[in-house]
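Narrative progress, year one. The postdoctoral researcher (J.K.) led the effort to move from monomer predictions toward full complexes, under supervision of the PI. The following entry was the first complex the group processed end to end, covering 280 residues in total.
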Amino acid sequence: MKIKVTTSNDEIRGLVSNAKEKGQIVGLVPTMGALHQGHLSLVQEANKKADFTVASIFVNPTQFDDNSDLENYPRSLDADIHMLEEVNCNAVYVPSSDEVYKDSKPFEFDFNGLNKPMEGEYRAGHFQGVVQVVKRLFEIINPDLACFGLKDFQQYAIIKEMVNQLNIPIDVIGCETIREENGLALSSRNQLLAQEDLQSALLISKALRLIQQNYRKHSPAELKALAVEPLQKEINLEYLEIADSDRLQPIESWSEAKHARAFIAAKVGEVRLIDNMEIF
Ligand code: PAF
């Protein structure tokens, strides 16, 4: 079936209401385009539970703290639509900024501390922009479920928190990170990496793997020291953190957390990459 492409709030609302009137479950995959296999896996996950899957493509200006990052963000709309059709996505919503934010006001949100560490420290206002746009997308599209990649684990945790706090009846599903065979987490930003930086980019997932595989032998502080060393020589490390998966607070001993994850953000050449892995 041909995918429906729309730029209009009214039209996407109409498509979703039609689906719901037929008793269909509606899934949403919010994206900023420049799609890769990771995004397509989100559509495939949504399709497992939903009868009608909508993807959104919108490069949200309010979540960029740096104008050149926004300008350089990769865009490939025609290819994106084609890829979505190939994985049986039913509709794609590609709004302008005016359309998304039409008739809406920014809302106050208590992040419960989740926006403070890691990305929050390095990208001022980023999560403020993310929650505003995701709430708008939820209001406009009104899905039953929405899929987010766990590569952006902090974003996923914040969206879960928002849905709980505001009692939004949407099932937020976190989907595993898709990796190249060499371990590199798929990201739209990977296409901006210079050829000579590809090997350095691999150090990120290697460091995370080292932590994941050795946590029984070392304390978090020891592991951080071991993992940081090879990174600092090759890439511009912003943070390497070992944190509680629920509150995202750094931990000093394993007993502090029921579940823990390791997180890295680094600039490889000019490209900022993030990744994380579950430890336990
Ligand atoms: O993860 C992303 O691509 C974006 O942050 C999202 C969730 C689409 C909001 O703009």
